[in-house]
Write a structure and sequence with these properties.
The complex is a heterodimer. Chain A has helices spanning 14-22, 37-42, 78-82, 85-90, 92-97, 104-107, 112-118, 124-131, 149-152, 228-234, 239-248, 263-279, and strands at 7-9, 28-31, 50-53, 63-66, 69-73, 135-140, 143-148, 153-155, 158-159, 166-173, 179-186, 196-204, 210-218, 225-226. Chain A is α+β, with helices and mostly antiparallel strands. In chain A, α10 packs antiparallel against α11 (239-248) and α11 (239-248) packs antiparallel against α12 (263-279). Chain B is built from 6 helices and 5 strands. The longest helix of chain B is centred in the C-terminal third of the chain and has 15 residues, at 143-157. Classes of the chains: A alpha+beta, B alpha+beta.
């Protein structure tokens, strides 16, 4: 189908964007890369009164690194993340996951901030940010604040983002030299939303015992979720050695079926992807 | 009545200015206003890849971008590739390898494959399949399409 009618503005500054988003009579929605919202509008699942296209806000684009870590502008496109030497060096987990995020033509338009703000339970980015202990910068006409990824994603397409507020940046803490990463997803077609997927990080020497595991699943429940019992089961063990105990500890998670698979299948696949991610962890 | 905006863009080398309804997506503008029916409309939610075309040198889904967002852009459709004889070897390889039957996916498939070839992609069947994974073909089973892309990469390497 085609999108229902709407009004369109492309503000040149954040202040102008907030003015539009704050006006309740406009029923405005922000448009980032449009790779989910345009599809939802074509389905008429979304029918905003106005689209506020953020593509002219150049301040929201780009990747910067300092001693605290990486700061990624919300309007940075996936293709630019995938081609960034800064991401490859400082956020190898993102680098290894990016080829799995949608298809080439979608990565050419889709943005990290759009994915974060949408909070699709099947999307990779929320789980990646949980595994990386990332912070999300949120801005509105009232000012700017930061929010831990763990406090941001609340449910299916639900976040702590308030009306009129925008995700403006994502901060990823500096990577400890012995931090290791793993990623795995099962999708029927490469680049499609996964049936189940997981991002893993942990601290430890190559092939040796690791501590401080962060295991974040996506596409298994109503939102991206950390598996704290599995993390506890792995603590102090090498990734390969702890995999079976971690799989046994997955029962705590609130698995929920979707169009692809029921909750029992999701639970089984979660064990499969976690084992493969652990076995494939970077050195 | 839809709100309209005036956009100026370059399509297949020709610059023009048009008033477009803001709700019109790029592929509908190209097909219905400019008569460039090479870009096809399939699923209209970004899954099938039939509407894939080139904007500012990168492939996009023509159904997930508004025409109004193409203001100032350089757009190339399958017609423009043919006129510029860009990817002629790819078109010939598609014919030689029977990489199409009904042809519905072909314009999007060519745009996606050309991005891979021109981006220096290797003649690696798995990598090619991954790059083409966003484009459905319901006729060929993909084998012959991957054959064609491999032929072009090998051919360009030996040129």
């Amino acid at each position: 189908m085609k999108a229902a009618d709407f009004r369109y503005e492309r503000p040149g500054s954040l202040a102008e964007a907030f003015e539009l988003l704050d006006d309740d009579t406009l029923d405005a929605m922000p448009l980032a890369g449009g790779q989910s919202l345009m599809a939802m509008m074509n389905f008429r699942l979304a029918q905003p009164g106005m689209l506020v296209d953020l593509s002219a806000l150049d301040d929201l684009k780009g990747i910067a690194a300092d001693k605290h870590g990486l700061r990624i502008g919300a309007m940075t496109r996936y293709v630019d993340l995938a081609n960034s030497p800064l991401i490859a060096e400082h956020a190898p987990l993102l680098h290894m996951a990016l080829p799995h995020i949608a298809h080439a033509a979608v990565r050419n338009r889709g943005t990290i901030g759009g994915s974060v703000a949408l909070a699709d339970p099947a999307a990779e980015m929320p789980a990646l940010l949980l595994a990386l202990d990332a912070e999300i910068t949120v801005q509105s006409s009232a000012g700017s604040k930061t929010c831990a990824a763990a406090d941001f994603f609340l449910g299916m397409y639900q976040t702590s983002l308030e009306a009129g507020a925008l995700v403006t940046a994502i901060s990823i803490p500096a990577r400890a030299p012995d931090r290791r990463f793993g990623f795995y997803e099962l999708a029927r077609r490469h680049g499609d939303y996964a049936m189940a997927g997981v991002a893993v990080s942990a601290t430890g020497a190559s092939n040796g015992p690791c501590t401080d595991y962060r295991i974040a699943f996506f596409s298994i429940a109503d939102r991206a979720l950390r598996a704290s019992a599995a993390e506890a089961a792995l603590e102090g063990k090498a990734p390969r050695d702890g995999a079976q105990a971690a799989i046994a500890a997955l029962g705590e998670l609130p698995f929920a079926g979707d169009l692809n698979a029921g909750s029992a299948t999701k639970r089984h696949l979660s064990g499969v992807v976690m084992k493969r991610a652990l076995e494939g962890m970077t050195r | 009545m839809s709100e309209t905006r005036t956009i100026s863009l370059t399509v297949n080398g020709a610059a023009s200015t048009h008033a477009v309804p803001v709700r019109q997506n790029l592929v509908d503008f190209l097909r219905n206003t400019l008569g460039l029916t090479g870009s096809h409309v399939g699923c209209e939610h970004g899954v099938c890849g039939a509407c894939t075309l080139e904007v500012n040198g990168a492939t996009v889904r023509g159904c997930l971008m508004l025409a109004v967002q193409a203001d100032g852009a350089v757009v190339t459709t399958v017609e423009g590739l043919a006129e510029a004889r860009r990817g002629e070897d790819l078109r010939q390889a598609f014919i030689a390898r029977n990489a199409l039957q009904c042809g519905y996916c072909t314009p999007g498939m060519l745009a996606t494959a050309l991005e891979y070839v021109e981006g220096g992609g290797a003649a690696d069947r798995i990598a090619i399949r991954q790059h083409l994974s966003g484009n459905y073909c319901r006729c060929t089973g993909y084998q012959s399409i991957v054959d064609a892309v491999c032929d072009v990469i090998d051919g360009r390497a030996h040129r």
